[in-house]
Amino acid sequence: MAFNNNDLLTEVAEYYTTKLAEHGVTPRGVDWNGEESQTLRFEQLCKIIDTSRHFSINDIGCGYGALYDYLTEKHSEFSYSGVDVSESMITAAEQRYNDQPHARFILSSEANQVADFGVASGIFNVRMGRSDEEWWGYLKATLDSLSRTSRIGFAFNCLTSYSDADKMRDYLYYADPCLLFDHCKRFYSRNVALLHDYGLYEFTILVRKQ
Predict the structure, then answer these.
(1) Angle between helices 66-74 and 35-45 (to 10 degrees)
(2) Where are the domains of the chain?
(3) How would you class 119 by CB atoms within 10 Å of its CB: exposed for 0-12, middle for 13-18, buried for 19 or more?
(4) Which residue from 128, 144, 150, 199 has the least number of CB within 10 angstroms?
């Protein structure tokens, strides 16, 4: 069943809509520090893509569609579906890629079709004033949706609970990578990889279902 906490999703949408208005169609517009770290995150997430043939992918929390640009540099044939809760983000993405027949965008918190792969970058970071328990429920529900709508595998990232204490912020959510690894192993697949070695205060988990 889809996670239906409308208040929480509205808060998230408003946060990123504000970032886009402040910084425009840039990495800072989706709350990343810069293009270099954004690209590094994409590299980790896209390790789930283990084929050179045509594939389909759902990008949950797509923002203005930056992952599509990254994919076009690496792959010649794929179908892309971007999903975001911010109407401003979806509008910006549609304007950027209106001439790309294999890119589509929908305003939603989850994909409306099954794809070979699913990815979610940064959507679990900004919890505002939500409690650990409430955010964990949102996170698990979103992973359930990712699993349901991903045929071959999915990948996601989170800020890490191993971050330096003096750099941690109350409005951000720092996940326990061991807990999430265990959750994915128990509920989604035997084939799970935890990537925590790429120099950022975060980790990426790859779940291979086949």
Answers:
(1) 60
(2) 6-208
(3) buried
(4) 199
For residue 78, how far is the Cα from the chain centroid? 18
Q: Tell whether the model's pLDDT for residue 3 goes beyond 50.
A: no
- For residue 115, the SS3 value is strand
End-to-end alpha carbon distance in the chain: 23
Whole-angstrom distance, CA of residue 57 vs CA of residue 150: 8
Determine whether domain 6-208 maps to CATH 3.40.50.1110: no
Question: Of all residues in the chain, what percent are helix, strand and coil, respectively (each to 5)?
Answer: 40, 25, 35
Average pLDDT over residues 15-34: 63
The two three-digit tokens of residue 50, written as one number? 């283990």
What pTM value is reported for the model? 0.87
Q: What is the pLDDT of residues 186-198, one digit of tens each?
A: 999 999 999 999 9
Location of structure tokens 């279902």: 209
Question: Which of 33-64 are b and which e, b meaning 16 or more Cβ less than 10 Å from the residue's Cβ?
Answer: eeeeebeebbebbbebbeeeeebbbbbbbbbb
| Torsion-angle region of 95 (φ positive above 0: left; ψ -120 to 50: alpha; else: beta) | alpha
State percent of the chain over pLDDT 70: 87
138 CB-near residues (< 8 Å, 6+ apart): 3, 5, 8, 124, 130
CB atoms within 10 A of CB 179: 11
